[in-house]
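Entry under discussion copied across for reference:
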Amino acid sequence: MPQNSTRNPMQLFASAALSLTFISAAAGAQVNAGEQKPEAALPFTMTQVATFNLPWRIAFLPDGRMLITEKVGPLWVVTQQGAKTEVKNVPAVLHHDQGGMLGVYLSPHYKTDHYVYLTYAEPHDSGSSLALARAKLSLSGSSASLDGLKVIWRDGAGGKGGQFGGAVAFSPDRKFLFLTVGERQRFTPAQDPDSPLGKILRLTLDGKPAPGNPEAGKVGASKIPVINPTKNTETAKTAPVIYTYTFPGPNLTPSETWATGFRTPYGLAFAPDGRLWELEDGPRGGDELNLVERGKNYGWPLVSYGKNYDGVPIPSPDTRPDLVKPVIYWTPVIASAGLTFYNGKMFPRWDGSAFAAGLGSKSLTRITFDKNGGANAAERWDMSRRVRDIAVAPDGALWLIEDSATGGLFRITPK
């Protein structure tokens, strides 16, 4: 693409797609769960225990306390009764649009190393970048702090606006870390092998490219133009104003990449059978649940079951058999957020199910899975609030946080 071009990138991709010749016909369309009606009643009781300013993610400590991030910056240790202790020595973040303090995750070896991982929008002169940091969590009486915090990965892209992704999942063997990186509404980087944007990365626990990745050993050094919207919200209804700038490439490493072609990957979790699942926001339509596999291309922005915010159509995934289709998609969108699998004693019939948080839809969706990589949106509940994250406590209760400046923390138990 010429560096000064302002032509809509979807038109470029659409024309390129039409020129390709395919070996086989497209498979049938996937199941659209967007029209699913909420259940008539909630099968559980919700009890609010605390309030936060734009809470983002929950991580349970072994003793039942929680770590909760607020997008505006703080990290909290929270008891199940709602008592909050602010954690000291958290990194500086740029809270702007979708950026800020994002995810918090316990090391798979937390009982021995006491490491926690944070994802956040790291500020610098050109805006912010997604950063992944690791630190030891020190808990002593009524105080908590992060010690020896170190950024172990950052995207290098910079710029302003866009959605960062920032979800983390650890491999079942506890040796590797998977990280989602949003394309920040710049479209083209999701298909650029030299850009980490729009990818799922597979890293060692100290942030290095993991051995065995599809492009292991390769290092990128290109500089390409990307498209960056100046206005971006999760509920944007109008076309963003766009401009181009040069993407700095010398530090980008394709050897980090596990899978390609993601838009806004907010949810990432391993199922009990070891499969990796990703949940992401589409544009106007086309939220996706994807089964993530090594080296596969999931299509954004070449294809989508949604349309651009300005109404420009995007080729359907049914036209591209060379790209991976979502297992479930939602049109209208649920405006997806966190994803977690249930394994607990309070709701035994839900064991092995996943829960997808819904922002704009104010919903919680239970998803069931088969042995062949298929999934079904089994139930959907109207929660009457923007659901940012859902987590499972050691005792089997579900915990939910609300995306709001006065966002509630709720404990969910059977009726």
Observations:
- Helices lie at 9-18, 110-113.
